């Protein structure tokens, strides 16, 4: 048996996942726990941080130890990742003062964004590094200041999810460089410090976590955290990072030209580059691996839209699953297998929760265009998957326009369980799409980073040899030709209806 083991836990939008791996990066235990996302009113999306984030970490950790039978003393390091771009104010005891405001799907701070655009004027993009959007955390801090003054007055730190979890584990308030960019312009990432000159209207510099790198050791597990997680006091804990960055690592996205397409609740992209680009349609920045840069981007819907279809148009299949039948999503995939590429002239704009990149428009709306009496729910569903595929293709266009070559496409997330959807993406892109041989996602990335951090592996190159692609999905170029024609309509639809969307 391995002499030491490494744990990784990832807290996502709808589920927390955890793995234990041995020194060969083989998974020896896996656990997951689902949780709800709160949507108390339009444009508001929240989590109860103490119940969901911390509660899940404790229960998943204990479940992993119980399943594996491994002594806590043999866990050499714990890696953490969590959903990013969220804002949680806590008091001096790291107790949340309100519900956590989630990432770009929560667009409540649109008035603050308008104010910041007016305040900074033509310099806004320079100050933030991109058009200010609902994924930025500083407008969320400003929203708390304007709308929850009693919370703002008591706040000791403004944290994102991984920072909160790491603080609960170790007592240290830190954030990795990859996530610190979400707080623009509050950090000076050239010097890895708080940008005190820019904090002014937002918060005090002391209310922000210190900047570290994702694979540094933040500290050891405290006695209190040990009692709650079942882990041994003093066990090393990584600084932690965002779920999408950790997921990219889990798939072997290690080299410039590699891209991860994450088909999760939303669709998220991490492209690795050897240089920093400037393009305000996406989110360029640093990456977890030293010496590399990233081009990140994210839509607002992917799995959330398939869930909407299940709950509203395929409720019979959901009921059949609840009665012991086939998984509803698997049955839905079979239902659309015979629908031709292009869904017989039906095009869907998948902006059911506004849109992040490349539109950066929280008021974008969903649309079914081209409906006729011959269309069925099967057409509607396939068209929606195609709409997400068109959005993915728009991001690949941006890479091409910036002369960034795409060498390897790794698809990850729950959407990879749908072979029809994977084929749609490959056909729309006209490129081969790969899936990972190990599909535990970000939690696996956390665990292998933990192994690297404590010396079980000496370099990222050694780790790359462990993580291999599993399956290749090759494009049907006849379907690609059909999709090329429909994409022109898809691209034009938003431009043609943007003002009408906003008037709603």
UniProtKB/TrEMBL annotation:
It is an enzyme of class 2 (transferase). Keywords: Kinase, Transferase. Residues 261-453 form the Carbohydrate kinase FGGY C-terminal domain. SUPFAM superfamilies: Actin-like ATPase domain (SSF53067). Residues 7-246 form the Carbohydrate kinase FGGY N-terminal domain. Coiled coil: none annotated. One of its GO terms (molecular function) is D-xylulokinase activity. Gene3D superfamilies: 3.30.420.40. Its EC number is 2.7.1.17. Belongs to the FGGY kinase family. PANTHER family: SUGAR KINASE, XYLULOSE KINASE. This is Xylulose kinase. The gene is xylB_3.
